[in-house]
Every structure is written in structure tokens, then in C-alpha cells.
Amino acid sequence: MPGKEQILEFIQTSDKPAGKREIAKAFGLKGQEKIALKKRLKDMAEEGLIDGRRTAYHRMGGVPKVTVLKIVAIEDGEVFAEPENWAPDSKEKPPRLLVVESKKMAALKKGDRILARNEETGRGWRATPMKKLPARTEGLMGVVEFDGAGKPWLAPVDKRVRESAPIGELGEAKEGELVLAERMGKSARSKVKVVEVIGDPLAPKAFSLIAIAKHGIPHIFANQTLDEARLATELPLNTDTREDLRDVPIVAIDPADARDHDDAIWAEPDGKGGYRAIVAIADVSYYVRPGGALDREARKRGNSVYFPDRVVPMLPEVLSADVCSLKEDVDRAAMACHIRVDKNGKVTDWRFTRAIVRLAKNIAYEDAQAAIDAGDAPEYLQNLWGAWKLLFKAREARDPLDLELPERQVRLNDDGVIEEIAVRERLDAHRVVEDFMIAANVAAAKALEAKAAPVVYRIHETPSREKLLAFKEYLASQGRKFAMGQVITPGIFNRMLKDIADPAEKALIMEAVLRSQTQAYYGPANAGHFGLSLGSYAHFTSPIRRYADLLVHRALVDAYKLEQPKPKLDLPDGTGLSDRDRTALHQITDAISQTERRAMEAERDTIDRYVAAWLSGRVGETFDTRITGVQGFGFFATIDKLGGDGLVPVSTLGREYFSYDEKAQKLVGESSGTEYAVGDRLKLKLAEANALTGALKFEVPDSDGAGIEPRGNRMPAKKRTHQKRGPAKGKGAPRQSHDQGKRGRPGNIRH
């Protein structure tokens, strides 16, 4: 009987529709095996892995099974919605879902937000509302401006909102101030009233406040939550019930600007060519008890959100930055993952304990790397590098997806003013910690599977057939081939990129590989981690900042009976999984996947604003750029080694007509043959840099930008389309979100 992964692999690589009959034939199933297959396919459909059609199953892709939707249109009595955060491939238009209205829910109108359960049918996507959500502040945060008649208007700070809103009630707000507002009527065109004055929109730390308000990120802890956090700090650390690891020289290697330290590592040779190692993780589950105020708030937030100037933590700072943070020369509660690494880099054994640790050192990546490079590193660092070289050998054999994804770093001075924006340097020190964390995460997943315990998996699915077909068509336009019949592995993409010598062409193909990938998410049904080339993977190493990790810790507490005696404090009993954790794991993982996407978008928006502010004094300068996206209305480009996506409208490319080749992702000049394609490198002049919205606009140097009249009607979308050069109607092209390592660590995958 094929497993779920094998079935999914067959469905997505089949050259013809794959129904139950085709699946059974492919795996040689007969009699009772076909009955078992039918049940397995039904289970997979209920889990959202495939659609429910029996004649031809398809892997679910694109829209999460449960997500937040925004009502975008009401046509002929039917309600249509789009995903609020369209991340799977943000350079494509978001899918439109038909909303099946419930009698229990009030009539929906354009602009409403709903949490919905989604499914793909033969006629497209359908959404069943679960509940109506409060309106977001998106579009209702802005700067107060006055027109010629002296009337106040709210100029939006969201680059996707095109129009200002009239202000009906100004309150104490003054011209030029950043404010929060709310609608005074039900219409999207009604006046707004100012409800909060934030102040100078260009003041230090304003950009993160904009993102917090726009995305509705909870950032204030209730008194009840703070009181419970302070009470939790009084919990004792009992050496009678914990493994005492205080004499082991465990070290935490983190970014120099890290605000919390939730993991530390140690290794020593085992005398057989391998290593014994410990990955010590902050024991957050000891302090954050299921069902308490702390737990409810952590589940609502889902994760910490990191901005250049602040952190919005998942837990109050008394825990996240103090009691739960692993620090040098201080006793701390930890969950210890003991692993053995053989001479081939394979992790052959693991066990989990609750422990007390006292770190020998908190060290920055750069300092650890400098000590290794100088040859005078202490023994504990030399051992870590020795164990890592074995882990890295196993990683190379596994051949995970290896993409170059530079991470922008905004450095601020003490006053919050930008000092520098640069790309974080990628060091071996980053890889050391990353590979230790991966080993611990795999061990946690397999340890729970061994006990048939609930697991919150980190899932990164194999690219869907639709995305692979688009990838194949794109490669064909570049004169390259891609076989659809093969089993898709990360190594296929790695070898393809490795064989490309020309940097410009490599960047172009890499963009296409990025577009072909799915977005990682959390879920209780294992579907593997394609990017890491792992069959079982769970997040275990960052419970301070991710609720998913906290759930994994609780599951380990239950499965391996790591419970501690109940202290005589007014805190909830137990540190394992609650009944809610077990019965509502699907809903919880759907919710924290959504909060993760929210955090990623908020972080990206803030970085974009900082980059635009950094560049606002350099308008008119020419930069080396790379094209990251092409549409009929123009192309998007990013500045090399800095980032910051900006639009080059087709209206600025001169008097020539440009055709949009959708398959090849390029614009082609009909007279000159000039091409602008994804991955191309070229010099562009910065025309605009709006720090409030984070929007950039470029121009091709020396182009006349003169407009001409349209000629004829637009051709069908699947063919080349002649575009009238006019004002750009599209929106920015944020990069597709992929998995990275620990916050502040550049990495190929958000593990």
C-alpha cells in the first residue's frame, strides 16, 4: 500500500488525470488493497492534501485549507473573495473564491474579512465562512493632509491603497502627522475619523508602528497575562527532577543583536569517529501552562515579530528576554536533546530530558567564526565544528534545496536612525547552528512518531504539477528542458543551477525555481519537508518565539513522561498537551500558519520602508539592478546588494510598443527587439522613493517616456498581449516567502 507521500508524488507527476483506478494500477493494488486505497484517498481529501474528486484527484495547492479571505466583489447575487495575504506566488494574480454564504452569518459586503474553509472543485475554488473578522486598519492609517480648500484628507501609507480618504473628524491631529482612523459609515468611500495620533511619520521607530497597526499584530499584553508571567518566574528549578548539565560547556551562538537566546549546543568526540552532542532549548513549556492567560495570548500571537527597531514578542519580556532566555553563567530550565552523530554524519540515536543548564558562553556568529579562522578557538568550539563537518557531509548526501537568498539587515544607531542597510554575510558559523537545529528538529519529530504521539509538523510540500508545468514552459522559452515524468527532488533544481556558469542566466533560472516552490506551513498530518529533503520534520528549537515549538515540547513532555511536580503557585496544572491541543490541532496549526504569514509580510513591509527612507536622498542616482518580475504594465527590479523592489512602468520605456510574453516572463520591443526579462541585470535610475509606503519607482536612463495612443484590443491572456503604455495599475511584487533559519540567520530555507 503506497504511503501518502507516494500517492501525492504520483498524482503530481502523472502525465494524465490520476483517479483511483490509475493509482491502483500504478502500485499494483488488487482486491482489499483497493478498498484500503479508497479509504486512504478519502482521508487525504479530508486532510486537505488532495481534492475530493474521484475521477481525477489533484493535489491541493495555492489556497490554504483555512485562511483569511477578503470579499472583493458581489456579482449577480454571488459573493467572491480573495486570500487576504496572497503569498504562494505573489507575482501571479490571487485566485478568486466563490463564497457559500451561511444563514447564520450576516449578509456579507465588499471589504468584509472572513475566516473560511476552502476547497477546490471542478468549477474553481469555494469558500465556506467560519466566522466574520473585524476590519483591519489597512488603508485607515495615513498622514493628515489638507487640500486647497482647507479640507483634511487621510493620505494612505499602504502602497496598495491608491486613494486618500476625506476626514470627517480630525480631533487633535495636525497636518503631517501619522494617525489611525476608522470609517464613519459603511461605505468604502465614507469619511473617516481620527482615533489615534501616532506622530511624526518619519520619526525613528515609526515604520514598525505602521506595520503593527496595518497588519493588526497584537503588541500589548493584558495585565492578567503580565501577572501570570511574573508569577511563573517564581517557579523553582529542582535538580532532583531535572538532569544537571551545568558543568557541560554548552554555548549559544547567535546574532550580535539577538534579543533572546532559546538554543545552545555542545559536542564532544565519542571515540568511534563520531560525536555525542546536546542541543539545549529553553524549557518554555515549564513556564507557559496550557489554558492559562499566557498560553491564550501566545496562541493568539502565534510567533514573535522582528523589526529592525523592536521585537513584538510572543511572550512577555520577563520570560522571553530573561527567565526563558539561555544566558551565560545563569541557571536556566532547558529541554535537552541528546543525539549521537556517527562518522558519516547520520544521527543514530536521540533522547530528551528536562535539564538545568548554565551556559559557558553567549557568543556572536562573527566572533565564533573569527576564533575558528584564527586557529585559537577553545575546545568546545573546535568540537562543534568537528561534529558539524559530519552533519554537513550527511546534508550534502541528502541534497536539500540550495538557493542563494540574501537577507537584508537594517542597522540603526542609538537614536533609531539608519546607519547602514546591507546583506548579512553568510558564515560557516551560521551553518553550524543551522545543521544542529535541523538534527534536533528531526529527532523531535521521530521521537514523537515512535510514541504515536501528536506531532505539529513543519511541512514544505513538493511543487504542484501546475507550478512545475509553468516552470517547464518557462525553461522552454529559455531553450532549456525539464522532464515532467521524473520524481521531483531538490537535487534536480540544485544540479540545474550548478550547471549554469553565467551569473545573469543563473539568477534568471533561480527566480523561476523560487516561483515553482510552495509555501511551508504547520500541520498535524505529515507530508514531509521538500526543501530540506526530509521525511519527518517538526519545529522544536525556538519555543520562545514560535507557538508550534511549544506544542512540540508539550507533546514530548507527555510522550516521555517529563512532567515536573506541581508547584504551589496559582498557575494552571500540567505542562503537557491539553485536551484542546489534542482535539483542535488542525485549527491551531492553521491559525499559527496564518500568523506566521502575517509576521513575514509585516517584517518585509517594514524593511521596504527603511530601504525607501535610506534611498530617498539618492533620487536621480543610477543603480545596478536585477529584474525580479515582469507584467504587461511594466517590470519590477531590485537594487543589487541592497534590495528594495521598484516598478519600471512600461509608460517610461519610450514611444515603442512592448509585447508581454507571459511564458517567457519578459517584455519585448516590437521595433527594436529590446527585451526586459526576469533575472536580467541592468542600470536603472531611481525616480521616486516613498518612505511612508516603501514604494520605489525606477526609470531606464535616457528613455523619453513619451506616450502614444492605444492600438486595437487586447489579445487573449495566453498569447502575447499588446499593452498600452499608461499609468501602472498593478501593485508591487513582493518576493515569494520561503523558509529561513533562526531569526537573524541567513539561510536557504525557513526551517
TrEMBL record:
<comment type="function">
    <text>3'-5' exoribonuclease that releases 5'-nucleoside monophosphates and is involved in maturation of structured RNAs.</text>
</comment>
<dbReference type="InterPro" id="IPR040476">
    <property type="entry name" value="CSD2"/>
</dbReference>
<feature type="region of interest" description="Disordered">
    <location>
        <begin position="700"/>
        <end position="751"/>
    </location>
</feature>
<keyword id="KW-0963">Cytoplasm</keyword>
<dbReference type="InterPro" id="IPR013668">
    <property type="entry name" value="RNase_R_HTH_12"/>
</dbReference>
<comment type="similarity">
    <text>Belongs to the RNR ribonuclease family. RNase R subfamily.</text>
</comment>
<protein>
    <recommendedName>
        <fullName>Ribonuclease R</fullName>
        <ecNumber>3.1.13.1</ecNumber>
    </recommendedName>
</protein>
<dbReference type="InterPro" id="IPR012340">
    <property type="entry name" value="NA-bd_OB-fold"/>
</dbReference>
<dbReference type="InterPro" id="IPR003029">
    <property type="entry name" value="S1_domain"/>
</dbReference>
<keyword id="KW-0378">Hydrolase</keyword>
<keyword id="KW-0269">Exonuclease</keyword>
<dbReference type="InterPro" id="IPR022966">
    <property type="entry name" value="RNase_II/R_CS"/>
</dbReference>
<dbReference type="InterPro" id="IPR001900">
    <property type="entry name" value="RNase_II/R"/>
</dbReference>
<dbReference type="InterPro" id="IPR050180">
    <property type="entry name" value="RNR_Ribonuclease"/>
</dbReference>
<dbReference type="Pfam" id="PF00773">
    <property type="entry name" value="RNB"/>
</dbReference>
<keyword id="KW-0694">RNA-binding</keyword>
<feature type="domain" description="S1 motif">
    <location>
        <begin position="620"/>
        <end position="701"/>
    </location>
</feature>
<dbReference type="InterPro" id="IPR004476">
    <property type="entry name" value="RNase_II/RNase_R"/>
</dbReference>
<dbReference type="InterPro" id="IPR011805">
    <property type="entry name" value="RNase_R"/>
</dbReference>
<dbReference type="Pfam" id="PF17876">
    <property type="entry name" value="CSD2"/>
</dbReference>
<dbReference type="Pfam" id="PF00575">
    <property type="entry name" value="S1"/>
</dbReference>
<keyword id="KW-0540">Nuclease</keyword>
<dbReference type="Pfam" id="PF08461">
    <property type="entry name" value="WHD_RNase_R"/>
</dbReference>
<feature type="compositionally biased region" description="Basic residues">
    <location>
        <begin position="716"/>
        <end position="728"/>
    </location>
</feature>
